[in-house]
Amino acid sequence: MAIEHNDLSGGLRHIVLSGRLDFHGVEKIIGQLSSLLTASGSNALIDLTQATLICSMGIRALILNAKNMQQRGRRMALVVDDGTIVSTTLKSVGIDSLLPVFTSLPDAKKAMLQ
Amino acid sequence: MAHLHESRLELQPPHDSSVLYRASEWLKAEGNKHAIPDEQLDRLDLFLNEALANVMDHGGASALASPIRLSTSFAQLPGQNEATITISDAGTAFDPLAHSPRPAPKSLDEAIPGGLGIPMIRSLADEMGYAYRDSQNHLSFTVRWKLATPMEVGSAGIPGIRVRPFKRSYADSSPGRKERRRPGVSWMQLFRGTDEDAVLSILNECDVLVMPPGTPLLKPGAANDAVFVLLSGSLSACLDSDLNPDAAIPIAPGECIGEMSAIDGKSVTALVEATAEARVLKVTPELFFNRLLTIPGVARNLLIALTERMRRTNESMMEAQRKQLALQHLHKELEVARQLQASMLPLRNPMFPERDDLEIAALMEPASEVGGDLFDAFFVDDQHLFICIGDVSGHGIPAALFMARSIGLMRIAAMGTMHPDDVIGKINDQLCSGNETNLFVTLFCGFLNVSTGRLVYSNGGHCAPILVSGNKASSIPIPKGTLVGAIPGLAYSSFEMVLDPEDTLVCYTDGVTEAQPVSGEEFSEERLIELLRNNRNQSPEAMVETVRHEVTEFTGNNALDDDYTLMVIRRHPMKKSNQSSEGTQ
């Protein structure tokens, strides 16, 4: 499980979560994820295209952070490859009705920078 | 007809997040073995992760202190395959299928972050099941997938094997094909130094089987008339009757397989399966015997291959003999360990034949050669008898070593105080110190004044002894106390009671009450109490024998799943000559 980030032009923070977001993995990155999202003061793209699994605790962390950002007038979106277990899992809990979900990074950037 | 394969894994406490990793790796290996598609394997993996985390977070202390058992079953059904994983835990009873899911939120404002696990796994399962039996939650999760179409099933009739013509496979120019990088046919054992064009003209009529990892090529007892040559990937041949993976012989690309059964027409003797994706050339008997063997050099190469196979088998047999000798030596050492352990316990009935105010009998039977149960009874002075019984977590040698340490520490502690709570507290601190094994022990101990019958006792997570008094039998109240060796610095408390003359106190370990048949309920505390009440007039020695006999009758088997210990203590009326010297506590 790894977490990396870079700040894109236009005030958008791109955070890449890779590997298994199982309970063990989420425990390791949850603090860093929250820090990266709260510290930047900008909108965020959570890139899950390199994640191989996401558990309920991982989804919970995403929703919690998205709610926090929304309360501060900021937005979060997800980038997920279609047809993967991560995509199936997120759809199973209806996350696409809570957050914008994109299947490509360029599309996500374009939408978030508008 | 469904073909069912089952596999099990027991996760021993303590349970932490490393358990998730171990379980996932085991599931991955099972998935590879049965060629479970990635999508279904991912769903099983996610379920396993969710369910294990749920057991650890919400199952309570009983879940954390007991093994979590995982089992997978893989079934080949008409038209589809099915894989099920079942998690069994001793935690608080909880049926996730009985919970109605919350309505899905329509916006982030409405969303409640928690409670996602259950709806998630329910939507990812093709079928789920839950049962609570034998004080265990059993939660199962099933995924299904369609079988390969007939085009994808090999001519060998083995599901999962794809077939392609050798000509196309061998001439494939796509990068990464290992056989493409092998020039000619001389790298194959059978065709070394032979006429390449003649061989290739025959091989071009053959098929190549593309085998996913874990797919069997030949099974023991099956008929086979074809000769196979491994082109790429890896196969292993397992001759062991129990199909022990450690006994598998690897087969390298270029080697031939199946030639013995093809030659003598007898059944296959080894399990040959792919250990990584493998491409295997299949040569039919007609092509092999009538055409390939007529090419100069092929017959000689076949004899060389058979000779090499024989030499390798001889080496394997020698190695097996060496291992057998080592095992015999280990068994002898275990027998010595068993005798040493038995010598640590007062295994003589009755224990104090010289006394007429007290009668004690006991039995300890380990489930394996050595065990983790302990008991003891000895006089610390003329009037005071120290008694104890305990059960170390786990079984076998680690538990036996921990038991030896526990009983040694207890004997020392009991000689320095008359307070059983101090004894347990002291042992707890000593066992916690440097306890790298994470083993622990349940303990019940007490000091009995044999003159007055006053028993002061303390408890560290052990089951309550049973008092048989008159025509009544019931568990005695015990002070709450955490199991010993797990958390340092704990304080224990003590209770006291009076054993009247002819009262009987029966101490036991859970190997008695949790003994159970292969399928069915446990012997239970209730059954033990009733049995003791009905046999209250028996001597302690006879009681010990009766209970053991009834447990055997109940389970239908003399073998034990858990270490078994029972100690019966009966106080007799004081003779007048003794009463004159009676002391008080």
Quick overview:
By secondary structure, chain A is of the alpha/beta class. Helix content of chain A is 45%, strand content 28%. Chain A is globular.
What's the topology here?
The complex is a heterodimer of chains A (about 110) and B (about 575).
Chain A: E1 2-8, E2 12-21, H1 23-40, E3 43-47, E4 51-54, H2 56-71, E5 76-79, H3 85-92, E6 101-102, H4 105-113
Parallel strand pairs in A: 2-3, 2-4, 3-5, 5-6
Antiparallel strand pairs in A: 1-2
Chain B: E1 3-11, H1 18-33, H2 38-58, H3 60-65, E2 68-77, E3 80-89, H4 117-124, E4 127-133, E5 136-146, E6 162-165, H5 166-171, H6 196-203, E7 207-211, E8 216-218, E9 227-238, E10 248-251, E11 256-257, H7 259-264, E12 271-283, H8 285-291, H9 298-344, E13 358-365, E14 373-379, E15 384-392, H10 396-414, H11 420-432, E16 441-449, E17 454-460, E18 466-469, E19 472-475, E20 494-498, E21 504-508, H12 510-513, H13 525-534, H14 540-555, E22 564-571, H15 576-579
Helix pairs in contact in B: 1-2, 2-4, 10-11
Provide structural commentary.
The complex is a heterodimer of chains A (114) and B (585). Chain A has 114 residues and is an alpha/beta fold. Chain A has helices spanning 23-40, 56-71, 85-92, 105-113; strands at residues 2-8, 12-21, 43-47, 51-54, 76-79, 101-102. In chain A, strands 1, 2, 3, 4, 5 and 6 form a six-stranded mixed sheet that branches. Chain A is globular. The mean pLDDT of chain A is 90. With 585 residues, chain B is an alpha+beta fold. Chain B has 15 helices and 22 strands. Chain B has helices at residues 18-33, 38-58, 60-65, 117-124, 166-171, 196-203, 259-264, 285-291, 298-344, 396-414, 420-432, 510-513, 525-534, 540-555, 576-579; strands spanning 3-11, 68-77, 80-89, 127-133, 136-146, 162-165, 207-211, 216-218, 227-238, 248-251, 256-257, 271-283, 358-365, 373-379, 384-392, 441-449, 454-460, 466-469, 472-475, 494-498, 504-508, 564-571. The longest helix of chain B has 47 residues, at 298-344. The termini of chain B are far apart. The chains are: A alpha/beta (114), B alpha+beta (585).
